[in-house]
Each structure stands twice: as structure tokens, then as C-alpha cells.
Amino acid sequence: MPELPEVETAVRALRPRVQGEALLKVEVFDPRLGLDPAALALPAPVRALRRRGKYILLELPGKTLVIHLRMSGRLVWGEAPPPGRVRLALHFPGGAVYLVDRRRLATAEVAQFEPRLGPEPFGDLSWLPGALKRSRMPIKNWLLDQGKIAGIGNIYAAEILYRAGIDPRRPAADLTEGEAQRLAQAIPQVLEEAIAGKGTTLPDGEYRQPSGELGGFQFRLSVYGRAGEACPGCGAPIARVKIAGRSTYFCPSCQR
Length: 256
Ligand SMILES: [Zn+2]
Hints:
Blueprint: H1 4-18, E1 22-23, E2 25-28, E3 44-45, E4 48-52, E5 55-60, E6 63-68, E7 73-78, E8 86-92, E9 95-101, E10 107-111, H2 128-133, H3 139-144, H4 154-164, H5 177-196, E11 239-243, E12 246-250
Antiparallel strand pairs: 1-3, 2-8, 4-5, 5-6, 6-10, 7-9, 8-9, 11-12
Helix pairs in contact: 1-5, 4-5
């Protein structure tokens, strides 16, 4: 499932192709999307393409097309539809952005307002320790809650907690000041490294950059998807537990 680094990678790759260009035409191939191209009043110039949390915002004059990739969506740049289940095409003078989405759960809608989301996980995170003190949720679930902090999903929550040396099952409010500060450092570090690596392509091969290339951060995962393998820090086997029904990977000796 695409998280912030995968969405940011797509936005950075597509921005020079579409920002300042005219969106000429939108084709909807899947009625389940519920998007009416007439609502976009095309052609129209793209004022900006940006990311907020895991959302992609294509800003037109007075309107925003809000795309969320959900489980299996990805954006592909090309001159002809790529293989796979293409649900949407956004046509520009130099080519098109295609939404490919095997499970058909991605959304694209014309919305005036941004969804309600917690702060971005970059910049000044000095608010974080105080926010953690107000929640008894397991810290991993806290990181996944888009209303608390935007953009983090199952892969990067595991990697962030490993980097910070914190057991994912601990209640957020029980973290010490020092642990909360380690977390505030690990969050942007891990996400920035994953963006630099162009995202994570898991063994299912589903996530690709808009160019069709794989991501590169899968080679740098410390714990995610590595149950039973040796922890890169201490050599102990990496554990997998379920928290709120989702697989959670961690090192029981490095993460306390
Ligand atoms: Zn370890």
C-alpha cells in the first residue's frame, strides 16, 4: 500500500510534466470512481500538483482533484495506456497520467477542501511528545492514525519504531521524554531516506514509480517483512505480532 514516500515520489516525478500545463481531457474507464469529468470544466491549467499526507492534490483554478491510491493504486506517465487495470486517464499536451489500480479501491474526486489530517511528519515536531501523552493507543497504531500525524502506514511505522528503539506495542502515553524525542527524529529521517530511495516495492511488485521503475528502499528495510531473519543491529531474530489485525515487525531485543 503506497505510503507518504511512494506518493511523494509520484508527485515529484509528475510535477514537471503537469504543473503549469493544460489538463485537456479526463477519461474515466471505471464508473465505480464516481468522477464526472464535466465537474472539472476542462481544459484548465494545472496550478500545482502536491501531496498532503497520502493524498495527491491536482489544483485547477477554483477546483482540486483529490486522488488517494489506497491499497493498490499507482500513477503512470505515458503516451498510451499501460498494462493493468487503468481506471482513469488525465490527458496533457505531452502525455497522460494513468491511474492503474488492480483492486479498484483508489479514489479520485473533485473537492473544495482538504481532508482532515494531522500535521505533516516533517519540520518542527516539538508538538509530538505532548500529543503522545494524550493517548493510550499502542504507539504503532498512533503512528498509523492519519488524524494524529499524516502519511505513515504499516511499512514505515515498523521502520520508524525500529530506528527509535521503541516496542510497537507500548501505549503512546508511556513513552519517556527521551523516547518521544528519538521518535521525533526517526520519523522524518526514515521517511526522507525512503523518498530518496524512491519508495518501497514489496515482493508483490505492485508499487512502481510513474516511469515504471521499481522503488529502491526495499533493500534498506530493517524489520518490515523480515520475520525470523537476523536483526541488522543485534542479530536476534525479528519478531512478527499482530496489532489491531495488522502484521507488525520488530526486534524484541533492540526495541523496548
Ligand atoms: Zn536487534
